[in-house]
Each structure stands twice: as structure tokens, then as C-alpha cells.
Design a protein that fits this description.
Elements: H1 6-86, H2 89-92
């Protein structure tokens, strides 16, 4: 059986603990990085959902405005046409 000096074993254990700490720190950093990436992904997904909702709302509002404007122009056209037909020939020129 091979014998090791106590100082050598203590140094070996100390080095193993240093390596273990380094590996644990690296693993913790990876976990934090993954958690940050997951949070960013959730945030981006939520932002996309909000933008889609806003886009749908804007599209609906544009449709409402188009209908309103078409109605106003139709009404305005009818009013102008009625005024023109009642106007005297001198006013038309």
C-alpha cells in the first residue's frame, strides 16, 4: 500500500475543494444565464402578444374610421349635389 504524507493529502484535498468551488460557480453562472434567457423569452412573448392585440385594435379602429369617412363623404356628396341642382345657372359657373 502506498503511503502519502499528511501535508500532501491536505494540499490535494484543498485543490479538490478549489476545483469543486470553481465548478459550482460555473454551474451557478449557467443557471443564472438560463434563467435570464427564459425571462427575456417570456417578456418578448408577452410583448408580441400585446403588439398583436394593439395591431388588431388599430385595424378595427381603421375600419371604423373608413366606414365613418365613407358615410360622411356620401352624405356630403348628396348635400353638395342637392345644392348644385337647386343653384341658379349663374352660380354654377
Amino acid at each position: 500500500m502506498t503511503e502519502f504524507c499528511p501535508e500532501c493529502l491536505e494540499e490535494y484535498v484543498r485543490l479538490l475543494r478549489v476545483d469543486q468551488k470553481r465548478l459550482q460557480d460555473a454551474e451557478d453562472a449557467e443557471v443564472r444565464k438560463r434563467e435570464r434567457a427564459d425571462a427575456l423569452l417570456r417578456n418578448a412573448s408577452a410583448q408580441i402578444g400585446i403588439m398583436r392585440n394593439n395591431n388588431d385594435e388599430l385595424k378595427a379602429r381603421v375600419k371604423e374610421l373608413e366606414i365613418l369617412i365613407k358615410g360622411k363623404f356620401t352624405t356630403l356628396g348628396e348635400i353638395l349635389h342637392a345644392r348644385e341642382s337647386r343653384s341658379s345657372p349663374a352660380r354654377k359657373e
